[in-house]
Amino acid sequence: MKHTNILLAGATGYLGNYLLNELLDNKNQVIAIVRNPDKWQNSNEDYLEIKQAEVTKAETLRDICKGINTVISTVGITKQKDGLTYMDVDYRANMNLLEEAKKSGVAQFVYVSAINGDKYRDLKIFEAKEKFVAALKSSGLNYTIVRPNGFFSDMGHFLQMAKSGRVFLFGSGHQKFNPIHGADLARAIVATLDDDNKELTIGGPDVMSLNEIAKLALTALNKPIKIIHLPDWSRKLTIRCLRSFTSVTTYGPMEFFLTLMAEDNIASTYGHEHLKDFYLEEAKNL
Question: Which regions span the lipid bilayer (predicted)?
Fold first, then answer.
């Protein structure tokens, strides 16, 4: 459905780029926040306006939501860098947006978190996200919380392992997931822009075990199937050692992946992009 006056934060990221294309394909009027507009070439001036701002700096967002009906934020980081923490980006930057949205009377705020963030809020990567989710729910704005079951791009590390001819998995490898392509997730988000006060937990069309994902990666690279299963206690020990002997900059992302991959994470299936095809395409560049 066509909407007007949508503010998109995080437009330069993996999902944000797909969202921008989907919104424009549907002839929505979009304002995209970017840090470096000189690096952008706006080829769709009828529907897209680019504004310079930094979501981590509240002063650059002043009145940015004036006339906006819907804010969509994909703002968040997996790895802390450039002196910015999860709290700086996933929480504070989104709060900057939310405060501007409330001030300008925005009707709806769409925020992209991750699957089971509410269950694993003790993980550093989720602590900031869920703190913002709580603030959004109590803001009085209509909201949609999107909880994707991992992106295809997150599955790239299986291909990297497969390059060496073997894939290492913790435990039995029977844990099941259904990661989703950014294009499919973007379509799903745009399709729910009329919904109010909703949490959307969503994954791709194929539910697969880690063993099956490992086989897809090895097959895409024409490697024999060789999967090494490590005992689950070694996964737990790895998390404890990372927490004890490394900074949160290092252990945050690893803690996240090692925790979520220890059990089934199955979301509602959606879309038509398949991990097998993604791997075959990515394998051409390896």
Answer: none
pLDDT at 3: 62
pLDDT digits (tens, 9 = 90+) for 218-264: 999 999 999 999 999 999 999 899 888 887 777 777 888 888 889 99
| The pLDDT of residue 2 is above 70 | no
Q: Distance between CA 129 and CA 94 in Å, rounded?
A: 9
Asked whether 84 and 90 are in contact (CB, 8 A), the reply is: no
Question: In which band, very low, low, confident or very high, does the pLDDT at 215 lie, cut at 50, 70 and 90?
Answer: very high
Q: Are 215 and 162 in contact (CB under 8 A)?
A: no
CATH number at residue 11: 3.40.50.720
The answer as to whether 118 is a domain residue is: yes
**Which structural domain range is residue 75 located in?**
6-150+178-203
- Distance, CA of 70 to CA of 108 (rounded, Å): 5
Mark out the alpha helices in 104-231 (DSSP H runs). 124-137, 156-162, 182-191, 210-220
Residue 22 counted as domain residue: yes
